[in-house]
Amino acid sequence: MAVLKVVEYPDALLSKKAKLIEKITLKELRLIEDMIETMFKKEGVGIAAPQVGVSKRIIVISPNARRGEERVLINPEILESSEENGMVSEEGCLSLPGISCEVARAKKVKYQAVDLNGVKRVEVAHDFPARVLQHEIDHLNGRLIVDRIDFNRRQALLASYRRL
Ligand code: NI
Q1: Domain residue ranges of the chain, discontinuous segments joined by +
Q2: I need a surface site. Which of 19, 44, 56, 99 has the fewest CB within 10 A?
Q3: Does 84 score more than 80 pLDDT?
Q4: How far, in Å, from the CA of 25 to the mean position of ligand 1?
């Protein structure tokens, strides 16, 4: 396992729509192991493949930040959301070091994803795990937390980011 370099804003890869996984090969399995290692090393609670330079629809989440309890989600997709902006809370992102902002997310999401064995599952997530899931799926669609806030707030945050 290796700790990978995390791609940071404004890298163009972060605003690209990632590709669907058609087959889980050894290459994907190795990538997933490295994503897990990188997430824990960087003390993140989730990571998406584009953040390590691979434009594929794979995310790893660990809402309780406990090793061994991480979840691997391949081709994850939100099927249903409760009220879109039902919970507002502070979020950060490994690809925007030093930045955090209040982001509105759905409190409850029903989603589907393929697991490591290639089995498609439909599940429901609430509260913080639902937030992490929405954040990481956003990455697969080329969206960052700064794309989820109003224009003025975004300009101010990005100006401070550039000064870091
Ligand atoms: Ni992020």
Answers
A1: 12-163
A2: 19
A3: no
A4: 25
Q: How far does the centroid of ligand 1 lie from the alpha carbon of residue 53, in Å?
A: 13
Distance CA 150, CA 137 (A): 20
Pick the CATH number of 12-163 from 3.90.180.10, 3.90.45.10, 3.40.50.720, 3.20.20.70: 3.90.45.10
Please give the backbone phi and psi of residue 98, each rounded to the nearest 5 degrees, phi first.
85, -5
* pLDDT given at position 86: 85
Q: How many CB atoms lie within 10 A of CB 17?
A: 12
Q: What is the pTM of this model?
A: 0.96
Phi/psi of residue 138, nearest 5 degrees: -55, -45
The torsion defined by the Cα of 41, 42, 43 and 45, in degrees rounded to 10, comes to -110
C-alpha dist (Å) from residue 41 to 32, 45, 46, 70, 94: 14, 11, 11, 13, 11
Ligand 1 centroid to Cα of residue 120, in Å, is 24
From ligand 1's centre to the CA of 124, what distance in Å? 21
d(CA 12, CA 2): 24
Distance CA 6, CA 141 (A): 17
